[in-house]
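Weekly modeling sync, notes
Attendees: S.R. (lead), two postdocs, one rotation student

Agenda item 3: backlog of single-chain predictions. S.R. asked that every request posted to the team notebook include the full sequence so nobody has to chase files. The rotation student volunteered to paste the first one in as an example of the format we agreed on. Action items at the bottom.

Example entry:
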Amino acid sequence: MDPVTLAVLALGSAFLLKGKKGRGSRSAPSGGWGVKGDEDRLHWLNEIRSMSHWYTQKFGSMPYLADYLTVVGYIEANFNPASRNPEYKTNPANAARGLGGMRPDTAFKEKYGTEFMAPYPDALLNPRWAFVMAVHHIWYACARVDELQTGVIDWAAVRRWWGRPTTVHDFNFDNPYSSGNLERFVDKLHECNKNYGTNIDPDFVWEKVSGWRNYPGIEVMIESFGLKGVYA
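Predicted structure, as returned to the notebook:
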């Protein structure tokens, strides 16, 4: 798709989202969450950013959340909420899936206060559940770094946490995985900018995850995004 068409579709999608408080307004189509074309992918790109901006403005928390989750949505799903890791064929209960590319065992567990969702792993295909659990996952990473006093968490560290949680503390990049993880993320960021016109500044990865202590908790997030009693 040419850049001009992308820009027009993006503006149209942003206009449709205006006034919806960014809390995820589209329902799952009868065939599921799968996209049918570039216009759908652009809708979900804009929905990620809209939900992120709403969260940041509402709670004064995590500037650059929209940029981070936009790149994650591109890497993990190319903005297709129905995306599943190929592992799904052999491990449907715990293969990574959805816009956040999260595993159900990571998202729905007792220490996150979401164990009640464990019987519904495909809830992560719902973009609102994917978003809420991604934000909760980021908050937990920040709290873990703060608890162990290993550094001041930035978005590069959050991305390390996404792939290999123990490396969230590797602020000196002593582990070869850490530099490779960052390089891959920045490469995909540039690719997302080129393909979708997102214009995300790669230097945001060095910004601190400020305001993370203002995270309101999983119960408020579930309520805010209309997920109480939603299991798919």
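Discussion: group reviewed the output briefly. Residues 3-224 form a domain with the Lysozyme fold (CATH 1.10.530.10).
Action items: rotation student to repeat for the remaining queue; S.R. to check formatting next week.
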